[in-house]
Design goal:
Structural class of chain A: alpha+beta
Strand content of chain B: 15-25%
Helix content of chain B: 25-40%
CATH architecture of the largest domain in chain B: 3-Layer(aba) Sandwich
Distance between the termini of chain A: 33 Å
Largest interface: A-B, 24 and 46 residues
Strand content of chain A: 15-25%
Largest sheet of chain A: 5 strands, mixed
Number of helices of chain A: 2
Helix content of chain A: 10-25%
Number of strands of chain B: 13
Radius of gyration of chain A: 12 Å
Shape of chain A: globular
Structural class of chain B: alpha/beta
CATH topology of the largest domain in chain B: Rossmann fold
Order of helices and strands of chain B: HHEHEHEHEHEEHHHEEEHEHEHEHEH
Number of strands of chain A: 5
Oligomer: heterodimer
Number of domains of chain B: 2
CATH superfamily of chain A: Beta-grasp domain
Number of domains of chain A: 1
Shape of chain B: globular
Strand order of the largest sheet of chain B: 3-2-1-4-5-6-7-8
Chain lengths: ~80, ~350
Amino acid sequence: MTILLFGITKDIVGTATLSVPTSSITGRKIPKTVKELKQFLGDTYPELNKLSSLAIAVNNDYAEDDRIINSYDEIALIPPVSGG
Amino acid sequence: MEDRYSRQTSLKEFGPEGQSKLINSKVLVVGLGGLGIPVLQYLNAMGVGMLGLLDQDVVELHNLQRQVLYTEKDLGRLKLEVTHEKLSVQNSQTVFGLHDTFLTKDNALDTIKDYDVVVDATDNFPTRYLINDACVILNKPFVYGALHGFEGHVSVFNHENGPTYRCLYPDMPTPDEVPNCNENGVMGVLPGIIGTLQALETIKLISGVGEVLSGSLLVYDGLSQRTTKMKFKLQLSNTKITELRETYQTDRCEIVAEVSVETFLELRESKTPFTLLDVRTKGEFDCGHLQEAIHLPLDMLQLPKQLSKSHHDIYIVCQSGKRSAIATRQLQMDYPELKFYNILGGMNKLMTLSS
Protein backbone atom coordinates (compact mmCIF):
# COMPACT_ATOMS: atom_id res chain seq x y z
CA MET A 1 0.00 0.00 0.00
CA THR A 2 1.15 3.51 -0.77
CA ILE A 3 1.15 6.26 1.82
CA LEU A 4 1.37 9.95 1.05
CA LEU A 5 3.32 11.97 3.60
CA PHE A 6 2.76 15.60 4.49
CA GLY A 7 4.23 18.22 6.81
CA ILE A 8 6.68 17.01 9.39
CA THR A 9 6.00 13.32 8.55
CA LYS A 10 7.53 13.90 5.12
CA ASP A 11 10.62 15.40 6.78
CA ILE A 12 10.87 12.53 9.27
CA VAL A 13 10.57 9.78 6.66
CA GLY A 14 12.56 11.70 4.07
CA THR A 15 10.27 11.06 1.10
CA ALA A 16 6.85 12.20 -0.09
CA THR A 17 5.50 8.66 -0.50
CA LEU A 18 6.13 5.43 1.29
CA SER A 19 5.39 1.89 0.25
CA VAL A 20 4.31 -0.60 2.88
CA PRO A 21 4.66 -4.25 1.82
CA THR A 22 1.35 -6.06 1.65
CA SER A 23 2.67 -9.60 1.61
CA SER A 24 4.60 -10.73 4.62
CA ILE A 25 7.93 -11.47 2.96
CA THR A 26 9.60 -9.37 5.61
CA GLY A 27 8.18 -11.54 8.36
CA ARG A 28 6.54 -8.49 9.94
CA LYS A 29 2.86 -8.34 10.65
CA ILE A 30 1.05 -6.43 7.95
CA PRO A 31 -1.04 -3.54 9.34
CA LYS A 32 -4.76 -4.16 8.98
CA THR A 33 -6.10 -1.14 10.81
CA VAL A 34 -5.11 2.49 11.14
CA LYS A 35 -3.88 1.78 14.64
CA GLU A 36 -1.65 -1.04 13.42
CA LEU A 37 -0.38 1.15 10.62
CA LYS A 38 0.61 3.81 13.15
CA GLN A 39 2.48 1.18 15.19
CA PHE A 40 4.11 -0.25 12.08
CA LEU A 41 5.34 3.17 10.96
CA GLY A 42 6.29 4.18 14.49
CA ASP A 43 8.55 1.13 14.82
CA THR A 44 10.42 2.11 11.68
CA TYR A 45 10.39 5.87 12.30
CA PRO A 46 10.27 6.41 16.08
CA GLU A 47 10.08 10.20 15.58
CA LEU A 48 6.50 9.69 14.36
CA ASN A 49 5.51 8.42 17.81
CA LYS A 50 6.25 11.86 19.24
CA LEU A 51 3.46 13.57 17.28
CA SER A 52 0.58 14.36 19.62
CA SER A 53 -1.97 14.96 16.85
CA LEU A 54 -1.61 13.16 13.55
CA ALA A 55 -4.53 12.89 11.16
CA ILE A 56 -4.65 9.85 8.90
CA ALA A 57 -6.79 9.96 5.80
CA VAL A 58 -8.03 6.76 4.18
CA ASN A 59 -9.47 7.44 0.73
CA ASN A 60 -9.70 11.13 1.60
CA ASP A 61 -11.63 10.58 4.81
CA TYR A 62 -10.31 11.21 8.29
CA ALA A 63 -9.88 7.73 9.76
CA GLU A 64 -10.16 6.64 13.38
CA ASP A 65 -7.77 4.05 14.84
CA ASP A 66 -10.13 1.12 14.34
CA ARG A 67 -10.66 1.77 10.63
CA ILE A 68 -9.80 -1.32 8.53
CA ILE A 69 -7.31 -0.68 5.75
CA ASN A 70 -6.72 -2.61 2.54
CA SER A 71 -3.85 -2.69 0.09
CA TYR A 72 -5.77 -0.65 -2.48
CA ASP A 73 -6.66 2.18 -0.06
CA GLU A 74 -5.12 5.58 -0.56
CA ILE A 75 -3.59 6.64 2.73
CA ALA A 76 -2.18 10.00 3.76
CA LEU A 77 -0.47 11.15 6.96
CA ILE A 78 -1.47 14.77 7.59
CA PRO A 79 0.02 16.30 10.74
CA PRO A 80 -0.78 19.85 11.80
CA VAL A 81 1.48 22.54 10.35
CA SER A 82 1.93 25.96 11.88
CA GLY A 83 3.87 28.31 9.60
CA GLY A 84 2.37 31.53 8.32
CA MET B 1 -19.67 57.04 -11.90
CA GLU B 2 -18.48 53.57 -12.72
CA ASP B 3 -19.00 51.12 -9.89
CA ARG B 4 -15.60 49.95 -8.70
CA TYR B 5 -16.99 46.49 -7.99
CA SER B 6 -18.75 46.00 -11.35
CA ARG B 7 -16.40 43.20 -12.42
CA GLN B 8 -17.57 41.05 -9.53
CA THR B 9 -21.17 42.25 -9.19
CA SER B 10 -21.68 41.27 -12.84
CA LEU B 11 -21.05 37.64 -11.85
CA LYS B 12 -24.56 36.23 -11.67
CA GLU B 13 -23.77 34.01 -8.68
CA PHE B 14 -22.44 36.97 -6.73
CA GLY B 15 -24.27 40.05 -7.98
CA PRO B 16 -25.07 43.27 -6.11
CA GLU B 17 -26.46 41.11 -3.25
CA GLY B 18 -23.06 39.52 -2.73
CA GLN B 19 -21.42 42.91 -2.77
CA SER B 20 -23.79 44.33 -0.22
CA LYS B 21 -23.03 41.39 2.06
CA LEU B 22 -19.31 42.14 1.79
CA ILE B 23 -19.81 45.81 2.54
CA ASN B 24 -21.82 44.95 5.64
CA SER B 25 -19.34 42.42 6.99
CA LYS B 26 -16.58 42.67 9.57
CA VAL B 27 -13.54 40.43 9.26
CA LEU B 28 -10.70 40.15 11.75
CA VAL B 29 -7.34 39.07 10.34
CA VAL B 30 -5.04 37.76 13.06
CA GLY B 31 -1.42 38.09 11.94
CA LEU B 32 -0.03 40.53 9.39
CA GLY B 33 2.56 38.20 7.93
CA GLY B 34 2.84 35.97 4.89
CA LEU B 35 -0.79 34.81 5.02
CA GLY B 36 -2.42 37.91 6.44
CA ILE B 37 -1.14 40.22 3.73
CA PRO B 38 -2.69 38.56 0.66
CA VAL B 39 -5.88 37.96 2.65
CA LEU B 40 -6.12 41.65 3.49
CA GLN B 41 -5.13 42.99 0.10
CA TYR B 42 -7.93 41.03 -1.58
CA LEU B 43 -10.60 41.50 1.06
CA ASN B 44 -9.85 45.22 1.03
CA ALA B 45 -9.83 45.45 -2.75
CA MET B 46 -13.09 43.51 -3.03
CA GLY B 47 -14.90 45.79 -0.61
CA VAL B 48 -15.27 44.08 2.77
CA GLY B 49 -16.71 46.87 4.92
CA MET B 50 -14.64 46.50 8.04
CA LEU B 51 -11.26 44.86 8.45
CA GLY B 52 -9.62 44.22 11.80
CA LEU B 53 -5.82 44.16 11.77
CA LEU B 54 -4.04 42.48 14.65
CA ASP B 55 -0.28 42.14 15.12
CA GLN B 56 2.49 43.59 17.22
CA ASP B 57 5.51 42.59 15.15
CA VAL B 58 7.74 44.94 13.21
CA VAL B 59 8.88 44.48 9.62
CA GLU B 60 12.16 42.59 9.46
CA LEU B 61 14.47 42.01 6.53
CA HIS B 62 13.76 38.27 6.37
CA ASN B 63 10.01 39.01 6.08
CA LEU B 64 10.39 40.63 2.68
CA GLN B 65 10.76 37.41 0.62
CA ARG B 66 7.11 36.51 1.35
CA GLN B 67 5.35 39.48 2.92
CA VAL B 68 5.07 41.39 -0.32
CA LEU B 69 3.20 44.45 0.95
CA TYR B 70 6.30 45.61 2.83
CA THR B 71 9.26 47.33 1.25
CA GLU B 72 12.82 48.00 2.38
CA LYS B 73 11.66 51.43 3.55
CA ASP B 74 9.33 49.79 6.06
CA LEU B 75 12.03 47.87 7.95
CA GLY B 76 11.74 48.40 11.69
CA ARG B 77 8.22 49.85 11.49
CA LEU B 78 5.17 48.24 13.06
CA LYS B 79 3.41 45.95 10.61
CA LEU B 80 0.10 47.26 11.88
CA GLU B 81 1.00 50.82 10.97
CA VAL B 82 2.42 50.01 7.53
CA THR B 83 -0.50 47.74 6.61
CA HIS B 84 -3.05 50.29 7.73
CA GLU B 85 -1.34 53.01 5.73
CA LYS B 86 -1.20 50.98 2.53
CA LEU B 87 -4.66 49.47 2.78
CA SER B 88 -6.23 52.88 3.44
CA VAL B 89 -4.78 54.11 0.18
CA GLN B 90 -5.93 50.98 -1.63
CA ASN B 91 -9.55 51.44 -0.53
CA SER B 92 -10.60 54.61 1.28
CA GLN B 93 -14.10 53.23 1.96
CA THR B 94 -12.91 50.48 4.30
CA VAL B 95 -13.21 50.94 8.05
CA PHE B 96 -10.22 49.55 9.93
CA GLY B 97 -10.08 48.14 13.44
CA LEU B 98 -6.52 48.44 14.71
CA HIS B 99 -5.32 46.03 17.37
CA ASP B 100 -1.75 46.81 18.42
CA THR B 101 -1.30 43.59 20.36
CA PHE B 102 -0.83 39.86 20.02
CA LEU B 103 -3.89 37.72 20.59
CA THR B 104 -3.85 36.45 24.19
CA LYS B 105 -6.32 34.61 26.36
CA ASP B 106 -7.04 37.91 28.09
CA ASN B 107 -8.00 39.88 24.98
CA ALA B 108 -9.20 37.18 22.54
CA LEU B 109 -12.90 37.08 23.40
CA ASP B 110 -13.21 40.83 23.68
CA THR B 111 -11.48 41.39 20.36
CA ILE B 112 -13.22 38.68 18.34
CA LYS B 113 -16.77 39.34 19.56
CA ASP B 114 -17.14 42.43 17.36
CA TYR B 115 -16.39 40.60 14.10
CA ASP B 116 -18.39 38.21 11.91
CA VAL B 117 -15.49 36.12 10.65
CA VAL B 118 -11.93 35.53 11.86
CA VAL B 119 -9.05 34.71 9.54
CA ASP B 120 -6.32 32.70 11.23
CA ALA B 121 -3.16 33.98 9.57
CA THR B 122 -0.87 33.29 12.51
CA ASP B 123 2.37 31.34 12.59
CA ASN B 124 2.16 29.35 15.81
CA PHE B 125 0.07 26.63 17.43
CA PRO B 126 -0.82 28.35 20.71
CA THR B 127 -2.55 31.21 18.86
CA ARG B 128 -4.29 28.81 16.47
CA TYR B 129 -5.77 26.83 19.38
CA LEU B 130 -6.68 30.07 21.14
CA ILE B 131 -8.52 31.33 18.03
CA ASN B 132 -10.35 28.01 17.77
CA ASP B 133 -11.53 28.02 21.35
CA ALA B 134 -12.51 31.69 21.32
CA CYS B 135 -14.45 31.23 18.06
CA VAL B 136 -16.25 28.17 19.45
CA ILE B 137 -17.23 30.11 22.57
CA LEU B 138 -18.44 33.09 20.54
CA ASN B 139 -19.91 30.95 17.75
CA LYS B 140 -17.89 32.60 14.96
CA PRO B 141 -16.53 30.83 11.90
CA PHE B 142 -12.81 31.07 11.16
CA VAL B 143 -10.82 30.60 8.02
CA TYR B 144 -7.66 28.64 8.65
CA GLY B 145 -4.42 28.63 6.69
CA ALA B 146 -1.02 27.19 7.63
CA LEU B 147 2.27 26.41 5.94
CA HIS B 148 5.12 23.98 6.06
CA GLY B 149 7.95 24.32 3.55
CA PHE B 150 6.36 23.89 0.11
CA GLU B 151 3.04 22.80 1.54
CA GLY B 152 -0.06 24.66 2.67
CA HIS B 153 -3.29 23.74 4.49
CA VAL B 154 -6.65 25.54 4.24
CA SER B 155 -9.99 24.93 5.90
CA VAL B 156 -12.99 26.71 7.42
CA PHE B 157 -13.79 25.76 10.98
CA ASN B 158 -16.83 26.24 13.19
CA HIS B 159 -19.01 27.23 10.26
CA GLU B 160 -22.75 26.56 10.73
CA ASN B 161 -22.20 23.80 13.28
CA GLY B 162 -19.39 22.32 11.21
CA PRO B 163 -16.26 20.74 12.69
CA THR B 164 -13.61 22.71 14.57
CA TYR B 165 -9.81 22.72 14.52
CA ARG B 166 -9.79 20.39 17.53
CA CYS B 167 -11.92 17.86 15.60
CA LEU B 168 -8.97 17.53 13.25
CA TYR B 169 -6.13 17.96 15.73
CA PRO B 170 -7.40 17.52 19.31
CA ASP B 171 -4.11 18.17 21.08
CA MET B 172 -1.64 20.96 20.52
CA PRO B 173 1.80 19.75 19.43
CA THR B 174 4.70 20.46 21.76
CA PRO B 175 7.29 22.99 20.58
CA ASP B 176 9.86 20.34 19.78
CA GLU B 177 7.51 18.28 17.57
CA VAL B 178 6.66 20.54 14.69
CA PRO B 179 8.77 23.54 13.76
CA ASN B 180 7.35 26.94 12.79
CA CYS B 181 8.59 28.71 9.70
CA ASN B 182 11.23 30.64 11.61
CA GLU B 183 12.99 27.35 12.10
CA ASN B 184 11.74 25.45 9.11
CA GLY B 185 11.67 27.91 6.23
CA VAL B 186 8.90 28.62 3.78
CA MET B 187 9.02 29.18 0.02
CA GLY B 188 8.20 32.87 -0.56
CA VAL B 189 5.27 32.36 -2.93
CA LEU B 190 3.50 29.72 -0.80
CA PRO B 191 1.80 32.08 1.67
CA GLY B 192 0.62 34.05 -1.38
CA ILE B 193 -1.19 30.97 -2.70
CA ILE B 194 -2.59 29.83 0.63
CA GLY B 195 -3.50 33.36 1.75
CA THR B 196 -5.47 34.01 -1.45
CA LEU B 197 -7.31 30.72 -0.93
CA GLN B 198 -8.19 31.92 2.56
CA ALA B 199 -9.42 35.21 1.08
CA LEU B 200 -11.60 33.26 -1.36
CA GLU B 201 -13.07 31.13 1.43
CA THR B 202 -13.78 34.28 3.44
CA ILE B 203 -15.62 35.85 0.51
CA LYS B 204 -17.62 32.64 -0.08
CA LEU B 205 -18.48 32.42 3.57
CA ILE B 206 -19.76 35.99 3.71
CA SER B 207 -21.58 36.04 0.38
CA GLY B 208 -22.93 32.50 0.50
CA VAL B 209 -21.54 31.76 -2.97
CA GLY B 210 -20.27 28.25 -3.66
CA GLU B 211 -19.32 25.55 -1.20
CA VAL B 212 -17.36 26.65 1.83
CA LEU B 213 -14.41 24.41 2.74
CA SER B 214 -16.07 23.30 5.95
CA GLY B 215 -15.48 19.75 7.19
CA SER B 216 -12.72 19.40 4.66
CA LEU B 217 -8.99 20.12 4.87
CA LEU B 218 -7.34 21.16 1.63
CA VAL B 219 -3.66 20.23 1.47
CA TYR B 220 -1.68 21.86 -1.29
CA ASP B 221 1.74 20.58 -2.28
CA GLY B 222 3.61 23.19 -4.29
CA LEU B 223 6.34 20.79 -5.37
CA SER B 224 4.00 18.47 -7.24
CA GLN B 225 1.09 20.92 -7.77
CA ARG B 226 -1.07 18.26 -6.18
CA THR B 227 -3.99 18.99 -3.90
CA THR B 228 -5.42 16.48 -1.48
CA LYS B 229 -8.64 16.92 0.43
CA MET B 230 -9.47 15.14 3.63
CA LYS B 231 -13.03 15.12 4.94
CA PHE B 232 -13.54 15.08 8.68
CA LYS B 233 -16.49 15.17 11.04
CA LEU B 234 -17.61 17.20 13.98
CA GLN B 235 -16.76 15.72 17.38
CA LEU B 236 -19.55 17.14 19.46
CA SER B 237 -17.42 17.43 22.61
CA ASN B 238 -15.29 20.08 20.88
CA THR B 239 -18.25 22.44 20.68
CA LYS B 240 -18.80 22.33 24.42
CA ILE B 241 -16.02 24.78 25.22
CA THR B 242 -17.36 27.40 27.59
CA GLU B 243 -14.21 29.19 28.65
CA LEU B 244 -10.65 29.64 27.45
CA ARG B 245 -7.90 27.55 28.98
CA GLU B 246 -5.65 28.89 31.66
CA THR B 247 -2.72 28.74 29.27
CA TYR B 248 -2.18 28.09 25.58
CA GLN B 249 1.36 26.96 25.96
CA THR B 250 1.73 23.23 25.46
CA ASP B 251 0.22 21.04 28.11
CA ARG B 252 3.32 19.30 29.34
CA CYS B 253 5.26 22.54 29.73
CA GLU B 254 5.13 24.88 32.66
CA ILE B 255 3.28 28.12 32.20
CA VAL B 256 5.57 30.73 30.71
CA ALA B 257 5.27 34.07 32.43
CA GLU B 258 5.27 36.98 30.01
CA VAL B 259 5.54 40.73 30.24
CA SER B 260 4.91 43.37 27.61
CA VAL B 261 7.72 45.63 26.53
CA GLU B 262 5.88 48.54 28.16
CA THR B 263 5.79 46.78 31.52
CA PHE B 264 9.44 45.87 31.22
CA LEU B 265 10.43 49.48 30.45
CA GLU B 266 8.47 50.69 33.48
CA LEU B 267 10.29 48.19 35.64
CA ARG B 268 13.59 49.37 34.22
CA GLU B 269 12.72 52.98 35.07
CA SER B 270 11.63 52.04 38.58
CA LYS B 271 15.17 50.94 39.55
CA THR B 272 13.86 47.63 40.88
CA PRO B 273 16.78 45.23 40.66
CA PHE B 274 16.35 42.57 37.98
CA THR B 275 18.43 40.43 35.66
CA LEU B 276 18.11 40.56 31.87
CA LEU B 277 19.22 37.69 29.67
CA ASP B 278 19.63 38.13 25.92
CA VAL B 279 19.34 34.74 24.19
CA ARG B 280 20.15 35.83 20.63
CA THR B 281 23.24 34.75 18.70
CA LYS B 282 26.59 36.42 19.29
CA GLY B 283 26.29 38.26 15.96
CA GLU B 284 22.90 39.72 16.86
CA PHE B 285 24.03 40.59 20.37
CA ASP B 286 27.12 42.37 19.07
CA CYS B 287 25.00 44.41 16.66
CA GLY B 288 23.23 46.08 19.59
CA HIS B 289 21.78 45.11 22.97
CA LEU B 290 20.49 46.66 26.15
CA GLN B 291 23.31 47.82 28.36
CA GLU B 292 22.47 45.59 31.32
CA ALA B 293 21.83 42.47 29.22
CA ILE B 294 23.80 39.31 29.91
CA HIS B 295 24.44 37.32 26.77
CA LEU B 296 23.32 33.70 26.98
CA PRO B 297 22.68 32.26 23.50
CA LEU B 298 19.75 29.87 23.21
CA ASP B 299 21.92 26.98 22.05
CA MET B 300 24.09 27.24 25.18
CA LEU B 301 21.31 27.80 27.66
CA GLN B 302 22.83 27.32 31.10
CA LEU B 303 22.68 29.84 33.89
CA PRO B 304 26.02 31.09 35.24
CA LYS B 305 26.48 30.04 38.89
CA GLN B 306 26.02 33.48 40.44
CA LEU B 307 22.68 33.86 38.63
CA SER B 308 21.31 30.50 39.68
CA LYS B 309 21.52 31.78 43.27
CA SER B 310 20.03 35.15 42.36
CA HIS B 311 16.96 36.44 44.16
CA HIS B 312 16.03 38.86 41.40
CA ASP B 313 13.43 38.17 38.75
CA ILE B 314 15.02 37.20 35.47
CA TYR B 315 13.73 38.71 32.21
CA ILE B 316 14.55 37.11 28.89
CA VAL B 317 14.74 38.86 25.56
CA CYS B 318 15.46 37.88 21.94
CA GLN B 319 14.73 39.60 18.62
CA SER B 320 10.98 38.97 18.32
CA GLY B 321 9.99 37.13 21.51
CA LYS B 322 9.88 33.61 20.08
CA ARG B 323 13.27 32.27 21.08
CA SER B 324 12.98 33.95 24.45
CA ALA B 325 9.70 32.07 25.00
CA ILE B 326 11.54 28.79 24.41
CA ALA B 327 14.36 29.91 26.71
CA THR B 328 11.92 31.02 29.42
CA ARG B 329 10.13 27.69 29.32
CA GLN B 330 13.40 25.76 29.41
CA LEU B 331 14.97 27.77 32.21
CA GLN B 332 11.79 27.72 34.28
CA MET B 333 11.86 23.92 34.13
CA ASP B 334 15.57 23.76 34.95
CA TYR B 335 15.39 26.30 37.80
CA PRO B 336 11.90 26.06 39.28
CA GLU B 337 12.96 28.11 42.33
CA LEU B 338 13.68 31.18 40.19
CA LYS B 339 11.15 33.39 38.43
CA PHE B 340 11.56 33.96 34.67
CA TYR B 341 9.65 36.29 32.39
CA ASN B 342 9.54 36.34 28.61
CA ILE B 343 9.57 39.83 27.10
CA LEU B 344 6.86 39.83 24.41
CA GLY B 345 7.87 41.31 21.08
CA GLY B 346 11.56 41.33 22.02
CA MET B 347 14.17 43.79 20.77
CA ASN B 348 12.02 44.66 17.74
CA LYS B 349 9.30 46.05 19.92
CA LEU B 350 11.76 47.61 22.37
CA MET B 351 13.37 49.52 19.57
CA THR B 352 10.10 50.91 18.22
CA LEU B 353 9.16 52.14 21.69
CA SER B 354 12.47 53.62 22.70
CA SER B 355 13.16 55.33 19.35
